[in-house]
Amino acid sequence: MTTSVRVGAPPSTFTAPLTLGWVRRYAARVGVGDLITVSAAVGGAHLATTDGANTPLASTGLLQGTVVTPLHVALTVAVLWLLALQILDTRGGRILGSGSLEYKRVMHASLLTFGFSVAGAFFLDIEVSAAFLAAMFLLGGGGLLVSRWLWRRWLIAQRSRGGYSSHVVLIGSERSVRQTALDLDRNRAYGYRVVGVGLTDGPDEGVLAGTGLPIIGAIDDVPMLLDAYGADTVIATNSDHLPPERVREISWNLHPQRHQLVLAPSITDVAGSRVHLRPVAGLPLLHVETPQYEGPQKAAKRIFDFTVSALILATLFPLFAIIAALIKKADGGPVFYSQERVGRDGEPFRILKFRSMYADADARRAELVAASAEGRRLFKMADDPRVTPVGRVLRRHSLDELPQLINVLRGDMSLVGPRPALPEEVSDYNSKERRRLAVTPGMSGLWQVSGRSNLGWDDGIRLDLYYADNWSMMGDLVILWRTARTVLRPDGAY
């Protein structure tokens, strides 16, 4: 049923005060965490390397004749460290709580402080203990990253309950506004909570179909209605009816201390590291780097895959033996299952798994596919009758996929990449879907850690294409970390 919302009369659930204050509150909390972490690192390193003694340090430089103790050095470095964290804007509202930029800036501040400390000790000719500096920066650098990660977990929990988020009004065409609203709702961890919309090609009141969001008024009236809806942010989505001149006029009507304007370009699924803003002749041009599939990063990925897979295989050999014995004992069939899959650039290879189904599983597949709503493009059954009792346990914890480490060692697969596709799936690919084959398939990937078998074909393809266009070594490490958590909490595995 459709409900009508009078222009300028916000629902009672949206009468919260403006929310930009949450940035200052959260930054203050993070700042306290930084202070505690740096102080603990400095104090711990001092105690560990001096046993609590504070013997004056020798100096023949500018500070000759001045009493300089390890405690003085520690306090000076701690102050420099905290200043570097502030100067490099590691607690800025635009980077806190999302992306990797926050962690990068923390590390840059730490390395900068370390460099200044070493240089200062050299030029002032102070005999500072190398063990003290090393211990302090190892403890502090690692501690700051852990502290920031823990605060981010806390922030995400708050945002999942609707707090610590920017309250957003979306403006643009009905289609672009609806899609942006749905995307933001699926990704609440980034801190944008949509409270209303304004349409360039639709009514000035009512509810936006498919979202339940109120249409708060005409586009030109939106700036005057923000406070009534407790909104602090306007996001302008792509629209032919919203030219640059009109966006600029809307920005003039926003309060500079209470409101902010965000532009959502028409490009999607592009990682931030590939996008660079370069003003040219007064035009804010967005440069999008093309995906890179060759070069040093590819070599580093292959070295990483080979080394890690070899270490895991050596470590888990006893587990392999136990699983093999259980499979063999269950029905006397083969331990391993081999199947043709399509790899990078369409090259076929044989994927290895521990056998989790009965021996006649492939022969029965056609019958089950015919009865499946998804068809052969994404054939997954939550209660597949072909799976053995032992196989259910293996699949639940992804243990059946461990032999794929051999594929990784051989180079057929990577530790992280798109799901390895079946030949019949590839034969149905369109030109867009074939981009999945531009990178090496992986044991895990964005699809697997974002819902596993709970995701449909379109969502899975979108995630795989995003990975293919935006992969990086740092991104691979994040996915591997999320994979470990997913295996421990196996939701959507069958």
Characterization of the model:
- With 494 residues, the protein is α/β, with parallel strands linked by helices.
- The protein has three domains: 12-18 and 165-266, NAD(P)-binding Rossmann-like Domain (Rossmann fold); 21-160; 296-488, no CATH class.
- The chain is 46% helix and 12% strand.
- The protein is built from 16 helices and twelve strands.
- Residues 1-19 have low confidence and may be disordered.
Taking the sheet with the most strands, its summary is: 4 strands, parallel
Record the strand order, biggest sheet. Answer: 2-1-5-6
Shape: flat
**Low-pLDDT ranges:** 1-19
Number of domains: 3
- Radius of gyration, in angstroms, nearest whole number: 28 Å
| Helix/strand order, N-terminal first | HHHHEHEEEHEHEEEHHEEHHHEHEHHH
Helix tally? 16
Distance between the termini: 38 Å
What proportion of the residues is helical, as a percent range?
40-55%
**Which structural class matches the secondary elements?**
alpha/beta
Q: List how many beta strands DSSP finds.
A: 12
